[in-house]
Amino acid sequence: MKLVVASLAVLAALCLQGEAKTFTRCQLVAELKKHKINQLKDWVCLIEGESSRRTDVIGPTNSDGSRDHGLFQINDRYWCNNGSKPGKACNVTCAELRTDDITKAVSCARTIYKAQGFNAWVAWRNNCKGKPLPDINMC
Ligand SMILES: *[C@@H]1O[C@H](CO)[C@@H](O)[C@H](O)[C@H]1NC(C)=O
Ligand SMILES: *[C@@H]1O[C@H](CO)[C@@H](O)[C@H](O)[C@H]1NC(C)=O
Q1: Which ligand 1 atom is the nearest neighbour of the CA of 67?
Q2: Mapping DSSP to helix (H, G, I), strand (E, B) and coil, where does residue 92 land?
Q3: Is 51 in contact with 70 (CB distance < 8 Å)?
Q4: Is the N or the C terminus of the chain less surrounded, counting Cβ atoms within 10 Å?
Q5: Along the chain (139 residues), what's the average pLDDT of each consecutive run of 10 residues?
């Protein structure tokens, strides 16, 4: 009985993990290159600070009640709709920003970058701005 319960728990955990991915630094670099991202070191630094390269993260609730989603920790107050319909400035659902396919997350991150630059991301301001950036030479 115990064994069955344990196996079910493992199965459930695997299912829940289906859409979760933690990229290695070099996998992330490859993904970002695939999406034609420039300034790779800044983006890698930003993503490492925001989500530790995990696609499915929902951040803790912010002081205004909003939350941050996915690899780029994109805020649901302005950029994604926290529901079943796509919306807000990126015209996406927040769930679409937490999938292993990072196409929509990249596109939304570009929208934010165009509007506010890297300064839109607290982790970039705190960990990357004017600081040594991650070494990606071996990737
Ligand atoms: C977003 O949706 C989740 C679950 O549907 C809910 O727990 C959360 O409070 C919502 N966040 C906001 C800011 O509405
Ligand atoms: C938002 O995206 C949906 C499909 O995901 C599309 O049908 C709709 O026209 C888009 N809305 C705007 C304002 O771009």
Answers
A1: 13
A2: strand
A3: yes
A4: N
A5: 48 53 98 98 98 97 97 98 97 97 98 98 98 97
